[in-house]
Design brief:
- The chain is elongated.
- It is 68% helix and 0% strand.
- The chain is mainly α.
Length: 210
């Protein structure tokens, strides 16, 4: 018998916590109805009232991951322009244990998304939204004279996301080679490479936030 509506709502948080526990321990490769049921201490049959299919479970897990990513603590946005871009991109990098765990889960989801057209489209939408949150700050940087007047904020947003996520993957696979201070320095070098030279500074580029 399916749970009553009140019971269903009461258990929703328990289900989500169990899904998150499995994701943190095993990634998407280990996300199964059996694993989530074991984490909750219930039968697989009971869990199927919430997730009748593996796809429903994966969809919920991706929604939960996106929600937790959106709700994570973030750095203050210090000023318009490249300083805010820097803060936003630092929030993505695996610089803390929590950010590292969250990034490992995201990366583990890519294989599933690439194999499923609808999940792939949803992931593409996430990238579109991420670029759209960075683009206005790049536009502000251009208006402030931090970027060349000919800079294309849309293209720069795509480049910034591609650089940052490429660094995420390298840091996850080789954390000793890419410690926190090196990740930060590499991001600063990337941003400096997009910026206008400081006048009278021998052609050196500004590094926002340093």
């Amino acid at each position: 018998m399916p749970p009553a509506p009140g019971d269903r709502e009461a258990r929703r948080k328990d289900v989500s916590e169990a899904v998150w526990q499995v994701l943190a321990d095993k990634g998407f490769g280990g996300l199964t109805l059996r694993a989530v049921a074991a984490a909750m201490g219930v039968s697989t049959g009971m869990l199927m009232h919430y997730f009748p299919t593996k796809r429903a479970l994966i969809t919920h897990a991706l929604d939960l991951l996106e929600k937790r990513t959106a709700e994570r603590p973030r750095r203050a946005r210090p000023a318009e322009g490249l300083a805010t871009v820097r803060a936003a991109l630092l929030d993505i990098l695996p610089l803390t244990p929590g950010d590292t765990a969250r990034n490992r889960i995201w990366v583990s989801s890519w294989d599933l998304s690439l194999a499923d057209g609808r999940l792939a489209a949803e992931q593409a939408d996430r990238y579109t939204r991420l670029r759209s949150t960075i683009r206005p700050h790049l536009e502000a940087a251009r208006d402030l004279g931090e970027l060349p007047a000919t800079a294309d904020p849309e293209q720069l947003a795509a480049a910034a996301v591609a650089f940052t996520h490429g660094l995420v993957v390298q840091a996850l696979f080789d954390p000793d080679r890419f410690p926190e201070e090196l990740q930060t320095a590499m991001l600063d070098d990337f941003l400096a490479s997009t910026a206008l030279p400081r006048s009278g500074a021998g052609g050196s580029k500004p590094v926002p936030g340093r």
